[in-house]
Amino acid sequence: MNLNELQARAKRHEPLSKHTTARIGGPADLLIEVRTTDELVAVAQRAEEMGLPYLVLGGGANVLVSDAGVRGLVIVNRAREIKFNVRGSKARVEVDSGVMLTTLARDCIERGLAGMEWAVNVPGTVGGAVVGNAGAYGADIAGNLNLVRVMPRGRAPEYWTPRQLQFGYRTSALKRYAPADRPIVLSATFDLRLDYRANLERRANEFIARRKATQPSGASIGSMFKNPDGDYAGRLIEACGLKGKCIGGAMISDKHANFFINVSGDARASDVKALIDLAHDAVLRRFGINLELEIELIGEWADAELRIGKLNPGDQGGADER
User: Fold this and answer.
1) pTM score over 0.85
2) Given 80, 170, 211, 268, the catalytic residue
3) CATH top-level class for 82-212?
């Protein structure tokens, strides 16, 4: 891709509220959508050649984009090819990083392939899920992962094993990079097993019912804080009397206190950040527990606004059960 092609395809001052699950976020200087991993590689490499800082955004879950937006280029990843290879009782599936987790889970269920049904109602893309080791209901991405194709900044694409990825609770070796320096996840390969489709559908329906019963609807980022050892962030925030607390257009959900909702439809990132600080400090004062962000703060933030972010860099991941 040459410079003229990039400029012709890029949108200028595009509101990132159009590209996040919370419908929150200021403008990107430039934004371009890519449809294949080849395009993703080409655009990223061209941006590096130009000295243009860039950030890759998937489904827009588990990120809070600042009201000031993002300087440089935002690449929205829509690469969504899935390849299935079934041999005997086992299967291997290669998935582009822009594939939605919900799509992957449902496609696997339809083919009678077990291992991803926990993700049937988890927002976000495969790429973000790999970075943050997304999970729910006692399972996570690391559980079935075989190999990941990544492109480190300034280098050619290469393959990383689960051991190289150093997965932990809602984190990985990739997550330890700052967003501006993070290798790009291009695709992931998972090992699955055959099962009866009826069994998989039953389990998926149980997960959907549990989510509906315990987690709020509406525009949200996802689980705000990691669960501390032996407890739940939502329970701690609720015990501080903060369920239903509003600042501006944002609200700590009155259904599950670890979800912060864009209740007005026009909430600002600063509203959500104020609720983050309020909940964090209330839990720290009452319980002595320093809650760590599960989401990631993206874009231009004033130093004072990043108080929690600097202490505890947010980790992308899927929604936890309560």
Assistant:
1) yes
2) 170
3) alpha beta
